Amino acid sequence: MHELLLYGQVPAARHDQVLRILSGLAAMQPRRILQRCILYKPQREPEEPGLNIRRGGTQNVAVKQAKQTAAPSLYYTKLIQKLSDNDFGKENGLPKSTTQPLSANVADGEEPKWSMRWEDIPDTGDRGVSIRFTNTTDLVTGNPHEQMIAAGPNRFVTEYFVEGHRFVLGNVIIFLHRILHEPGVRSVEETPKSILPSFANLQLLDLSGAYVLEAKVRVQDFKEASILESGVNELKDFQKQMRGCVELALPDRLSLDTRVKYRPPHAAAASAQNRPR
């Protein structure tokens, strides 16, 4: 699945106004969205390109003559949990129930609440919108954290929450949201929390309270030029409709980079040796 994206920023003071405008434009009531995002990093590091040549040995003579290819990049992956207000703790911050392991089990006919999402770095093509490949897999059984650990293998990094409202206008999915996190410095933990904090105790990541307006069109058949062009045009039409209200723009692709930054061990050692004492 490919996603076509444009982003804008909405100050907190204009949130209610923009929400009403989007409701009228999409001819629907806003759908409130609460999500928990749990970020994971691959435990292994990619082998640095050309490392086998520097190791020496008779076999490497032939390797030098072969065409070198860059090692594949590693990417952060995240679990997404759909939440409701009842999933959070009490107002005083105390848990409302005893600790239970994370579970993705769903009964027949129920909508999955857990999914695993992978996102590629956006395309460099200049079509006026950001384009990236994504893969989302619903989880319907087992412990989602244990599945993520075994799949990589991966390591738990951090978790945060997303709160906002969603609209649908034609094929454009509109998401007006902001990110929240649990305050305070947490000790080094290897697993996400099984009991969520109170929603009232969460803090804004952006202290200004500004919201992010994400406009997205999903394209299944990316190779079909007519389908891609239709999605791009529909997204740009929405961009024009929002002019004077919210300026939607193409984001810097590197700001959406999900690759794990790899620093070769020998480079880290050289940096430590050259550091002034």
TrEMBL record:
Its main location: nucleus. GO terms for biological process: regulation of transcription by RNA polymerase II; termination of RNA polymerase II transcription. It comes from the Eukaryota. Transmembrane segments: none annotated. It holds the Pfam family Med18. The keyword Nucleus applies. Coiled coil: none annotated. Residues 90-110 are annotated as: Disordered. Keywords: Activator, Nucleus, Transcription, Transcription regulation. GO terms for cellular component: core mediator complex; mediator complex. One of its GO terms (molecular function) is transcription coregulator activity. It is found in: Nucleus. Belongs to the Mediator complex subunit 18 family. Component of the Mediator complex. Component of the Mediator complex, a coactivator involved in the regulated transcription of nearly all RNA polymerase II-dependent genes. Mediator functions as a bridge to convey information from gene-specific regulatory proteins to the basal RNA polymerase II transcription machinery. Mediator is recruited to promoters by direct interactions with regulatory proteins and serves as a scaffold for the assembly of a functional preinitiation complex with RNA polymerase II and the general transcription factors. PANTHER family: MEDIATOR OF RNA POLYMERASE II TRANSCRIPTION SUBUNIT 18, MEDIATOR OF RNA POLYMERASE II TRANSCRIPTION, SUBUNIT 18. This is Mediator of RNA polymerase II transcription subunit 18. It comes from Setomelanomma holmii.
